[in-house]
Amino acid sequence: MSIPTPHINAKAGDFAETVLMPGDPKRSKMIAENFLENAVLVNDVRGVQGYTGTYKGKRVSVMASGMGQPAIGIYSYELFKFYDVKNIIRIGSCGSINPELHLKDIVIAQGACTNGFYASQYRLPGTFCPIASYELLEKSVEAARKSGANFRVGNILSSDTFYDDAQSGLDWAKMGVLGIEMESAALYCNAARLGKNALCICTVSDSLNYPDEVMTAEERQNSLTQMIEIALEIA
């Protein structure tokens, strides 16, 4: 396959070596307009907006992934494989299942458990454990400490079901999992398979333990500033 790909119409060199990847295209646009200098739209296939600009003089890109492992699996693979992107940092929201985490706290995912089957394509004779790039993980912890953020480092669950009929969140919590989102395991698998770097940083948008703590859709789109700044600092 050559570029443009079926899902990205950017030209060679349009993306920086590091791409921030929120789920929401509107958040991608918000980051480009409010955090990057001289941001240029480089992709808009299916409304999945990608931009490249600079942050503190460093070239950085931001592009949405959509929701779920199949979606981020496609976009991250094409960026890694065909656009020579070296690092992808997912910046998203998660639901907390840890009682010590509250609304707007940050989870840095060192590993991504999953109830999905993305890794089955590799035909491995066992269970693959998708983990973050240690280099990005280490830098994110340093940046989070400097920012004064309330954060935890640990496992996250990439779930293929948003409306979980089994209500299994607390079962995962018993194994020390901090929160639930829907993308990171596929991203970590792609990075491992292609020899690239990946990290997921999530802001808590709701909590299984505290049902009254919920962000609105608008808040998820337009806030989460501390997480975005941590990602940009390590980019």
Can you walk through the features of this model?
- With 235 residues, the chain is an alpha/beta fold.
- It has a single domain (18-234), classed as Nucleoside phosphorylase domain (Rossmann fold), CATH 3.40.50.
- The chain contains 7 helices and 9 strands; from the N terminus they run E-H-E-E-E-H-E-E-H-E-H-E-H-E-H-H.
- It has helices at 25-35, 69-82, 134-147, 169-173, 184-194, 217-222, 225-234, and strands spanning 18-21, 37-43, 50-55, 58-63, 87-96, 106-114, 151-158, 179-181, 197-207.
- Helix 4 links the parallel strand 7 (151-158) and strand 8.
- The chain starts with 17 loop residues before the first strand and ends with a helix.
- The mean pLDDT is 94.
Task: Please write out the topology.
Layout: E1 18-21, H1 25-35, E2 37-43, E3 50-55, E4 58-63, H2 69-82, E5 87-96, E6 106-114, H3 134-147, E7 151-158, H4 169-173, E8 179-181, H5 184-194, E9 197-207, H6 217-222, H7 225-234
Parallel strand pairs: 1-4, 1-5, 5-9, 6-7, 7-8
Antiparallel strand pairs: 2-3, 3-4, 5-8, 6-9
Helix pairs in contact: 2-5, 3-7
